[in-house]
Amino acid sequence: MSRAEQYSWASLIGLCAVFWWFQMRMLAGWTIVDQQPGDLFEIYIGVIAASIALEIAIASILTSSAGGKKVEKDERDHAIDARASLNERVFMIIAINVVIWQALWEGVFEGHGLPKIDLTNLSSLIFALFAILFGGEAVKRISTIVLYRAQAARG
Amino acid sequence: MAPIGKGRVFNKIREHRQRLGLTQADLADRVGATRQTIIAVEAGKYAPSLELAFRIARAFDAPFEAVWTFRADD
């Protein structure tokens, strides 16, 4: 397993941990908890700080385990990165369109039975936006790992 | 002239490596790639860029066609 692939695994696990903490602060079961703007700002700062700290910790651990050398990447790693980023972009476009559609449907078909996100509520809006960001990042990391595994196992 | 259809690129990296007594890590160092990339290229799981393909041939001090061959599908 290359260092770039190890980095992707560690980063995915870190991302899941941060999302777990985030949803613990935002959800009660499947319901988004209504919170004050000050509390939401605290959660926002917490998510950003935890994400940055985890990425630095992962990079430091991998660099020290490689005898001080940075995680090296060659053209195959960059090609995999580019493909994973494309998948992330596609996910983001679809997710944002889903939010737009559900907002439009809300107005057109008020009685529809589909899950609803109240985008006029600040807590719901913050949760929806962060969930899309987390989802996009997860798609990128999973795509990276799948592409590395496909090249290692195929043939 | 008839159009050239799709096909597959094959390589003789392993033969050349063994001829020169090089490990995959040695070749990776010579061409500036990771060992995992050399493993993937050698096994035909990853198609390298034209530049890397030339660097690999040059690392063996062999003509390009001696390392890389193209076979069109029937």
Task: Explain what the structure shows.
Chain A is mainly alpha-helical and 155 residues long. Helices cover 77% and strands 3% of the residues of chain A. Chain A contains four helices and two strands; from the N terminus they run H-E-E-H-H-H. Chain A has helices spanning 3-26, 37-65, 75-108, 122-153, and strands at 27-28, 31-32. Chain A has a two-stranded antiparallel ribbon with strand order 1-2. In chain A, strand 1 and strand 2 form a beta hairpin. In chain A, helix 1 (3-26) runs antiparallel to helix 2, helix 1 packs antiparallel against helix 4 and helix 3 runs antiparallel to helix 4. With 74 residues, chain B is α+β, with helices and mostly antiparallel strands. Helices cover 51% and strands 14% of the residues of chain B. Chain B has five helices and two strands; from the N terminus they run E-H-H-H-H-H-E. Chain B has helices at 13-20, 24-31, 35-42, 50-59, 64-67, and strands at residues 7-11, 68-72. Chain B has a two-stranded antiparallel ribbon with strand order 1-2. The longest helix of chain B is centred in the C-terminal third of the chain and has 10 residues, at 50-59. Chain B is elongated and about 40 Å long. The chains are: A mainly alpha (155), B alpha+beta (74). The interface between A and B is medium-sized, with 14 and 14 residues.
